[in-house]
Specification:
Length: 192
């Protein structure tokens, strides 16, 4: 259960102000059909994070515990730095257009936007840290939904009220603490 709660919290915070959250806003403004957009976000996130979680689980079979400990610790610290760099929305497939419909466009755009994104990398790291693949994928997917679904429904009103810089600083601090714990905590941690 810890893997689920930590994964949900980390991804929810990491997603604030992220390009996929901006993509949610763009899709909501463009199509004005929230349910197919939210369902598309869910399907794309579940598929993307299931793959990322599988990679994270696989990594634990390839790397020894000490190497894994250093890779995870340094990766979490790198994520802390990455959280301090603001995202902007590039053309991540939103030009797919109505040919695919609202749902199809959302699935394609979100799946592509998540490739190599902070939350995908976080999913890989969390799956490597915890031996709980399903809990991690469920948590990271819920975190994405908690961050993105309200944007689809509330749009500009929500984005204007959320102090994104503060959320990024808190997220960076959490990733830094997780990295330091992975590097310097006694062997009794989940990394042991």
């Amino acid at each position: 259960m810890e893997a689920f709660l930590v994964s949900t919290a980390i991804v929810t915070l990491a997603e604030m102000g992220d390009k996929t959250q901006l993509l949610s806003l763009v899709l909501a403004a463009r199509f004005r059909r929230p349910w197919p957009i939210v369902l598309g976000i869910f399907v794309a996130t579940l598929a993307n994070h299931a793959l990322a979680g599988a990679v994270g689980t696989w990594v634990t079979t390839v790397l020894g515990p000490q190497v894994l400990r250093w890779v995870l610790g340094l990766s979490f610290i790198a994520m802390a730095v990455w959280m301090l760099i603001p995202d902007r929305l590039d053309d991540d497939g939103t030009g797919a257009g109505p040919r695919l419909g609202v749902f199809g466009t959302t699935v394609l755009a979100f799946f592509l936007a998540e490739m190599g994104d902070k939350t995908q990398v976080a999913t890989v790291m969390l799956a490597a840290q915890y031996s709980a693949y399903l809990w991690v994928v469920a948590g990271t997917t819920l975190g994405m939904m908690l961050a993105n679904a309200p944007v689809v429904w509330l749009g500009d009103r929500l984005v204007k009220k959320v102090p994104i810089r503060v959320v990024h600083l808190v997220s960076a601090l959490i990733f830094l603490v997780l990295g330091l714990l992975a590097l310097f905590a006694p062997q009794a941690t989940p990394l042991a």
